[in-house]
Amino acid sequence: MKSISNEISVDPQGSAGTSQWAMQVGRMDPDAVLRWCEAPEDASDSPVQDGVGSAPVLGTDGLIDQTAIAHAFSQMYLIPVFDPPVDEPLPVDRSVAESIPKEVCEKHSLAPLADDGFTLEVAVACPDGLRHADAIGRQLDRRIRPMFATADVVGRLIAALHDSTNRQDGLLRHAKAAEACDDPSHDERPTIQRPAEQVSPAERPSDEIDAAKRTLSIGAASESDQAIADLLAEAIRQDATDIHLEPAGDTCRIRIRAEGRLSVHGAFSVALYRQISDALKLRSRVRRSESRLPQEGGFTLLRGAKRFHVSLQTFPTAAGESMVLGLRELSAVAESLDALSMDPVQLARVRTILQSSHGLVAICGPRGSGKRATMQAFAAELNDVTRNVCSAERRGTVSMPGINQVLTCEAAGLGMTQTLQVCLNQDPDVVLLGEPWNAGTARLCADAASAGALVIGMMRSSDSLSGFRRLCSYGDSAAPFTSSLSGIIGQRSLRRLCDHCRRPTRPDRATAQRLSLTQDAVLYQAAGCDACDQSGYQGTMYLYEVIRIPDEIDRNDVWNDAGSVTRSASDFKTIARRQGVLTLAEQTRTHLLAGHVSVQDALRGGTVMGSRS
């Protein structure tokens, strides 16, 4: 059992004067807190004089506006605020109570919120708590995700986690936190123990339903907990990307999107759906009582040694509040470029694009086409000590040592555009944008590419040409984008037919004409067998079209000097073909004739080009 007494000690005379700071915060209004935090160490114009400040004095009367103080700290440190509704139960997982003893929580005014085995979320009441949380993270081998909270909220959390009677009368105050910081016995602290079930991911049980239930459980198991656990387990089994919960009349329809297609997966009763909705909102930390406005949240799900981020999107409809759950695996490492299913010519072309010292690289494709995996593979290829690589992401799905991953924090006003600007201020050689471009981020990326950085981003489009046109539509003029564009990678995913049960078929006249085939051509359709779990499909294939600019395409053939697109889609494809680039439509047609994909899937993703011979 290892002691952490030396790791979380606080120097009362530290550079920031943290001990005295914590003592005086309770006597200051939020603006004064920020002014004092930004003042030099030896500043003598302290806003607190003779125990009197512009805000009510913190004492036994408890008149201080703790919420305003928490938001002031959030603004300064760019750390979100944990501010649950007073009239609703706290979203706590009692299993994390073993992570940090009650004595440590009370002494340093902090409380654990969630622990997925990799990241420990901690609520802290004052800046000193950040130091203690970091030390606890080192002791438990966890990455810390801190959140500021009021002292009352931290007290409620401690009571909910450690008090079996769930009493809430032990509310902590900032003054008590300050006294703990200056306590002479500060170094005599209890040891923090790692829970036995969190020793390592490999030792966790592999049963997906039990794992989901453990992660989602906030109290005693209930029918809603079981339903959520079963639903998530089934979605993970199908390798699904989304779960749709849609109320209609006296039932709630369940649909799961797997391999790009939605399918019905039963229904809940309205009464059970209300319980499920409350449980999901509570876990995702959104307001349970709000059903008139869209809300966004999420949580982490454990399944054996794998972690998944489950995002929650709620939106009101005429039939009631619908929900969409998005599942994304939080991979341990990024795949290499060679792991992508590109042919040698495409790989060589991509590596040539990535060797550019500057320019704009667009990864284009519809949702579920694997753009994020391609982005991560590009990052792994570019990650070396000779480059300063920065990424702007909403959530770090893959840990990439050596890359400065900057995460957004909407609660602190750090949206995607602001996060991207933070990356650009770090003198980067390479910038990765982990979310699809919009008008604001696209213009910033184009400016950074023109200034000497290699910028890689994603766009939702059907192919490279439509992605190029959309990129050029983001500004008043297309010139900033056309002048900096270095390469476009278009991609799409297709379900691969099961070789054991695929069924031959003949195209009808309309399909044959569209594909420039005779009606005697042999195509294939899905059937279903035990080998493919009656789905008719086995796995997913990814197709790519890689176009280098300007080396492989003459800019004057595609846009004029004013930066306006001048040629049609067919002209663009003709130019790409002249350089040996097979379009996604051509590749799809090849796989269709080879019996790898069905006619329905091939035509659903876009027009399949007919033979030109």
Summarize the topology:
Layout: H1 18-25, H2 30-38, H3 66-77, H4 102-108, E1 110-115, E2 119-124, H5 128-140, E3 143-148, H6 151-162, H7 174-182, H8 208-216, H9 223-237, E4 240-248, E5 251-258, E6 261-269, H10 270-284, E7 295-303, E8 306-317, E9 320-329, H11 344-354, E10 359-365, H12 371-382, E11 389-393, E12 404-407, H13 416-424, E13 430-436, H14 439-450, E14 454-460, H15 464-472, H16 479-484, E15 485-497, E16 503-505, H17 509-514, E17 523-525, E18 537-548, H18 555-558, H19 569-578, H20 584-593, H21 599-604
Parallel strand pairs: 2-3, 10-14, 10-15, 11-12, 11-13, 13-14
Antiparallel strand pairs: 1-2, 4-5, 4-9, 5-6, 7-8, 8-9, 15-18, 16-17
Helix pairs in contact: 1-7, 2-3, 8-9, 9-10, 13-14
Uncertain spans, ≥5 residues at pLDDT below 50?
Answer: 1-30, 36-63, 164-221
Could you give the count of β-strands? 18
> Looking at this structure, what is the CATH superfamily of the largest domain?
P-loop containing nucleotide triphosphate hydrolases
How are the strands ordered across the major sheet? 12-11-13-14-10-15-18
- State the domain count: 3
Distance between the termini: 75 Å
Please outline the major beta sheet: 7 strands, mixed
Q: Based on Cα principal axes, name the global outline.
A: globular
Class derived from helix and strand content = alpha/beta
Top-tier CATH class of the largest domain: Alpha Beta
